[in-house]
Amino acid sequence: MAACKPEEYGFDVTFIWEDEKSEVSETTEEDSVQNAKEINRDDITCAICLLVLREPVQAVKCGHRFCEKCIGEFHLQNPGKCPKDWQEIQVFPDVGKKREILSLKIRCPNFVDGCTWQNELREKEVHLKTCGFVTVPCELDCGEFVLRKNV
Ligand SMILES: [Zn+2]
Ligand SMILES: [Zn+2]
Ligand SMILES: [Zn+2]
């Protein structure tokens, strides 16, 4: 699957609690989603692409979850089968899980370059449009890649 555009499968993200060095903000009692350490990574991982579920669907019988796109492609080859246990399955959109995942706090994918942005997964695409730590081709056409904030 490495050859495919990863953006179309699951989310390849770093949650804020996954980076030991980060200061995880105080968790509040009433906001259980924020208490992200409690979240079981298996619960939000696509059984096919092994990334975080994008447009999650769940199999009725066995409870396995997949990205809508991942299971769609799998079913082109293996109609109606679960790739984990080969049962006959029907899948339905898991709206609750989708909402839960989009509410999880992630770090900017460019945090290794120094971006300190953290927010809900749903805000990621918006942030990346303005993130100063995206590498862009140098305007002087020198062939170098530079951070957008330095352009
Ligand atoms: Zn997937
Ligand atoms: Zn299954
Ligand atoms: Zn950023």
TrEMBL record:
Keyword Flavoprotein belongs to the record: no
Annotated Gene3D superfamilies: Zinc/RING finger domain, C3HC4 (zinc finger)
Taxonomy, superkingdom: Eukaryota
GO molecular function: zinc ion binding
SUPFAM superfamilies on file: RING/U-box, TRAF domain-like
Record-annotated RING-type domain positions: 46-85
Alphabetized UniProt keyword annotations: Metal-binding, Zinc, Zinc-finger
InterPro entries on file: Znf_RING, Znf_RING/FYVE/PHD, Znf_RING_CS
Record keyword Zinc-finger present: yes
One GO biological process term: regulation of canonical NF-kappaB signal transduction
Protein name: RING-type domain-containing protein
